[in-house]
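User:
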Amino acid sequence: MFCGFLFIKNKYITPKQPSLQSEKVQKYQKLLGNAGLKGNLTIYKNGQRIWQYSTVGDANSSYLINSVQKELTGGLVMQAVSRGKLSLNDKINKFYPNVPNAQNISVLNLLEMTSGLDPAGPMGDAPYNNDDANAQKMIQDTHYNEQNFGKWDYQDLDYILLSHILEKVSGQSYETLFDNMYVYPLKLKHTDFVWADQQKLKEINFLPSGQNIDMNAIHSLLGAGSVAMSNDDLYKVSADLLNGKLLSAQNKAIIYAPGNNPSHYRGGLYTKGDYYESNGNGCGYCNFLRISKDGKVAVILQSMDSSRYGDLSNAADGIYADLFGK
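Assistant: Predicted structure:
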C-alpha cells in the first residue's frame, strides 16, 4: 500500500509534486505581464495545483467571480431535479405566473438563455437583504421579446430567476442551498457572498478591486454574480461538479450538455470541444475558467483589472491550449 511517501535509508522522502517546466514559467509570466494581470492564475493537472502565479495577493486571495457563478447555480438546479423538486421541462408560470410569457418558458430555456426575457429597467432598487422583494422588482421590470424566444440571448436575469425558483421549490434561501452543496461539504475556506461582513471578507482574503460594489445591485444578481472565491476553491467546486462527487455522471451530462444554441451554452458553461469555458466581468473584476470535461485539468485566471478583459481571456485560452490542447 502506498501511503504518500517513500522510505529510503531511514529517511522519509515526500514524492515530488507535479510542476511546470522553467521555459513554460518564463513564457507564461511574460504573457501574463503583457496581458496586464492584476491577480492570480493557477494551473491544475490531475486534481493538483502545478503552477500558481500572483501579481497581486496570493494563492488564497478571493475575487468576485461574477458570471462564473452561473455554473454553480446550474449545479444547484440539477441537484433539485435529481431530488424531484424540479423538472427542466417545468414552465415558470408554475413558480412566477406574472413573468411575461411564463406559460411557455421552461426551466431549460432559462438554463440555455433562450427565454426571450430581458430587463426593461435597472435591477437593484429593492432592499438587498430581501430576496422576495428583489424577485418581484425583477419581474416588474422584465420585458419579453418574442423575436428572441428560443434564440440564445445572454441575460443575467435568466439565472437570477432560476435562483428564486430554487428558493421556492426548496423553502430555503439561495445562500443556504449554496453553502449546503458547496461550502460545508467541500470545506471551502475562501468563499462567501460579497455582502458578508468585513471580518468574514477579511477571513476569506477578499481583494477589493477599488471599485465600489453597490450591495443592492449585487444582491439582485443572487445566483448570477454575487460570490467571492479563491482559485483553489473555484477549482475544487468545478472539478467536483464534473468528476461525479457532486453530481452523477448522468446528471452532469444533462446540465452541462451543449445547449440548443449557437454558443453551446447550458448550465453556466460553454462547451468548447473537449473542455468547458466560463467567463465573468463586473465591478472591476474579470474571471476565466477553462476546465476539461472530467475536471482533471484546468486553468483559472482572476484579476482586479477588468479593463484588460480581452487580453486576459486570450491569455487563459492560450495557456490552456498550450498545455492541454490537442
